[in-house]
Amino acid sequence: MQKLSGAGVFHKAEPNHFAEHLRTESLSVGTYSLLAGAVDDQAPHHEDEIYVVTTGRATFVTPSGSEQVGPGDVLFVPAEEEHRFVDITEDLALLVFFAPPYSGR
User: In the chain, what is the greatest distance between 2 CA atoms, to the nearest angstrom?
Assistant: First the structure.
């Protein structure tokens, strides 16, 4: 067992901040933080991804549509799909799961 202290907690170091908390052969877990009003400039990932909104509010946009998101919402993004958070009205913290582990760009 491993406890991930601080996972999903907002981090205000910069407008967009990603911190990885765990990496195994099959998945990785991190926290993605975006300040209210920030621009989410991420590119599509090579991995499937699940976001769990822990704090904040925004609109999540993909080619298939957009959704208002807030605490408790869970989002699935398949590998290579364009996606981003826009209209971030409250500091946003997301627990992020990647499978396989996040490789970066």
Answer: 38
Which residue, 48, 40, 4, 41, is CA-closest to 22?
4
What's the confidence (pLDDT) of residue 15? 85
Domain annotation for the chain: domains and CATH numbers:
17-99 (2.60.120.10)
Give the position of tokens 């991995």. Answer: 47
The pTM for the full model equals 0.92
DSSP string, 45-82: -SSEEEEEEEEEEEEEEETTEEEEE-TT-EEEE-TT--
Q: Are strands 16-23 and 48-62 parallel, antiparallel or unpaired?
A: unpaired
Q: Given CA atoms 66, 70, 74, 80 in this order, what sign does their dihedral have?
A: positive
* Peptide bond between residue 63 and the one before it cis (omega within 30 degrees of 0): no
Please report the pLDDT score of residue 104 as a whole number. 75
**CA 21/CA 84 separation, integer angstroms:** 22
